[in-house]
Amino acid sequence: MSAEATNPEAHPEAPPELRRRGRTRLDLRRLGRAALLGPTSRDRLPDAIGHVAEAHRAHHPDADLSVLRRAYLLAETSHRGQMRKSGEPYITHPLAVTLILAELGAETTTLTASLLHDTVEDTDVTLDQVGEEFGDEVRFIVDGVTKVEKIDYGAAAEPETFRKMLVATGNDVRVMSIKLADRLHNMRTLGVMRPEKQARIAKVTRDVLIPLAERLGVQALKTELEDLVFAILHPEEYERTRALIAAHAGDRDPLPAIADSVRTVLREAGITAEVQVRPRHFVSVHRIALNRGELRGSDFGRILVLVAENADCYAVLGELHTCFTPVVSEFKDFIATPKFNLYQSLHTAVATPEGHVAEVIVRTRQMHRVAEAGVVALGNPYATASAACGASTTATAASGAPAAPADPYEERVDPTRPGWLSRLLDWQQSAPDPDTFWSVLRAELAQDREITVFRADGGTLGLPAGASCIDAAYAQHGEAAHSCIGARVNGRLTSLSAPLSDGDTVQLLLAQDASSGPAAEWLDHAKTPAARIAISSWLETHPDRAMATTTAARAPLSVVGARGGGANAVADLPNAPVRLAGCCTPVPPDAVAGFVVRGGAVTVHRIHCAAVAQMRAVGRTSVAVHWRATADCRVTLLAESFGRPHLLADLTEAIAREGVEVVSATVEPPVEQRVRHTYTLQLPDAAGLPALMRAMRNVPGVYDVSRA
Predict the structure, then answer these.
(1) Residues 6+ apart with CB under 8 A from 419
(2) pTM
(3) What is the DSSP code string of 280-345?
(4) Quick check: 209 and 178 in contact, CB under 8 A?
(5) Of 637, 640, 685, 698, nearest in space to 662 by CA
(6) Region for 466 from its dihedrals, namely left if φ exceeds 0, alpha if ψ lies in -120 to 50, beta otherwise
(7) Residue 214: CB partners within 8 Å, gap ≥ 6?
(8) Strand partners, 294
(9) How buried is 169 (Cβ within 10 angstroms: 0-12 exposed, 13-18 middle, 19+ buried)?
(10) Exposed, middle or buried: residue 188 (CB in 10 Å: 0-12, 13-18, 19+)?
């Protein structure tokens, strides 16, 4: 992987705390010499991968180590004579990458592919040879990693490189696991490069690979990558943070005493638990220092409580909140509502009688394993149900048994593939150019929370936090969402710009008019790349429609008919002119009441009109009114709809088909894609009013028609 490297132990930029971690204790110079000398016996694993075998057996006691031995021998033989820029034998790089994955608990197939991940790219070994020797699964992963690495990591090539990485990851998440471990080792050994190249690699790591590690839940890799990037891009702040940690090391740390108190409380409650003090990494300390200013002694670490079962987590939480003072605002339940990257834990904070506040994380051991290793801890997602996690399909293929997929190059359904990855795979195909893809990718990865909404048909949609109904429309319907005219959220009509919350039920309303399209302002409310790219593409291909949707709101449009029409109500007041009230527009057979107004005219209202109550409240006496037996009538209707092209024409046509004359019409400017129409209509017969209102409601986009 063209990873210019030096000995991680000698890397001057790496923090001492990172160099002390288990992954970096190996003397890679000694391993390099062992690789060149080869094994002393064909019956035992080479000394150079003894550490890998030991770490692997810790997680998978029954794993077949002979596969690793053969993979190591092929990699060492193929890379023999190749050196890294630091002067180390090249084989030290795949060994270090494989050790990182082994300590995370990766299964045998991943470790085998990790040992061989550079052979096809940098040596004469072919994919066919890898497949024949180690099976289709290993070949598939090695091919995915190789495709990612074939492009030069120049600034112009980075978007296409990461596009290929996403596609390869979508085909097999283990490709990204190897890539992340590879980048971690390269970042540990970046000291031999020029400062400007270190900065460029660190920026790409910060913008894309660290968010991907977070999305895949591989916290152990993510936190160390963050610290290494921090040291390169912000050396002064890094040094200040290191000085803070060093100064704290000389002070009396309150966390061990608090941990002892927690152990005592849990022991007395009969809860079996392991209690640890977990120091924060550099970036975490730096963030707390920025947020709080002066750091407390308990801010440099957290207390981790590991138990056996989920129920024990809540039992621990109850004891902590009973025996200590809980900080209610710090409580988070990621067991009942896991994060989208598989993370589960209970988070709380408690205050001791001495005034110290300690953050506490409670989780099961399995949750802890997944929290540290993410998808790496899930084993082979494509293995058959009968295949054990440690006994990978590599050993199956080597023994002549059939591999898991019939054709490893067909698209496979990955049960561990998270929703965000599926979304990225969908929209990356439609990204119009590398720059758009690159900018949108970074924006998408910057989203750190996901919500789940339910569709009206019972399905679900995974969306980033803050997504709107527009995002849901494009996630469910693709380009057909161009004709979306509105939505119902939890049964209530709402605008397309309305943001969605976790657990909402959304029903999307589509227009039947194929010529309908999105408005330019949709881009202001679209959060997902798929929605933004689809809307932008449509607007680019319909510039006239795009300009029309962005014009300023105009005054209400009014259309007035040529003739008025007489009233068809008769008042019990001789010779008094009768007018139908415009506030409630009564029509036969409405129950009505009349009131004499200035000039002697009688104004007729429906009896439930608010004006009737007001008249009677001030002592006005009503006049009896009745309807003529057969007569036309005038009525005012309000039609509320979602904005779309040709809506006014369609409504007018529907009214005309019912044989009704439009006396006047007013269309208010759209507000959040919702339009209000007011029609004064002359009906030849009042009995036709219900049919008219039904016809208007059937016009696509109209969601309500009511009397004024």
Answers:
(1) 340, 450, 462
(2) 0.62
(3) PPHHHHHHHHHHHSSPPGGGGEEEEEEESSHHHHHHHHHHHHHHSEE-GGG-EETTTS--TTS---
(4) no
(5) 637
(6) left
(7) 222, 341, 448
(8) none
(9) buried
(10) buried
| Residue 660 or 309, more confident | 309
pLDDT tens digits for range 328-370? 888 999 898 787 777 899 999 999 888 889 999 999 999 999 8
pLDDT 10s digits, 69-79: 999 999 988 88
Please give the share of the chain, as a percent, with pLDDT higher than 90.
Answer: 17
435 band by pLDDT with thresholds 50, 70 and 90 = low
User: C-alpha 429: how far from its chain's center?
Assistant: 18
Q: How far is it, in rounded angstroms, from Cα 625 to Cα 686?
A: 17
Q: Are 474 and 461 spatial neighbours (Cβ–Cβ below 8 Å)?
A: no
On average, the pLDDT of the chain sits at: 76
| Residue from 72, 53, 86 nearest 133 by CA | 72
User: Which sign does the torsion angle of CA 96, 100, 102, 103 carry?
Assistant: positive
Statement: residue 24 has pLDDT above 90:
no
pLDDT above 70: percentage of residues in the chain: 74
Judge whether 230 and 282 are in contact, CB under 8 Å. Answer: yes
For the purposes of burial, counting CB atoms within 10 Å of the CB of 672, is it exposed (0-12), middle (13-18) or buried (19 or more)?
A: middle
pLDDT band at 143 (very low <50, low <70, confident <90, very high): confident
CB-CB contact of 474 with 482 (8 Å): no
Catalytic residues: 121-122
Length of the chain: 708
Give the pLDDT confidence score for residue 11 in this predicted structure. 40
To which residue do tokens 């009396």 refer? 252
* Cα–Cα distance, 106 to 113 (Å, whole number): 11
Q: What CA–CA distances, in Å, run from 472 to 157, 453, 480, 504? A: 32, 8, 12, 11
Write down the residue that tokens 């709080």 correspond to: 292
List beta partners, residue 509. Answer: 486
> Is the torsion defined by CA of 414, 419, 422, 424 positive or negative?
negative
Residue-level pLDDT at 114:
93
Question: Do the Cβ atoms of 633 and 697 come closer than 8 Å?
Answer: no
What local confidence, expressed as pLDDT, does residue 34 receive?
44
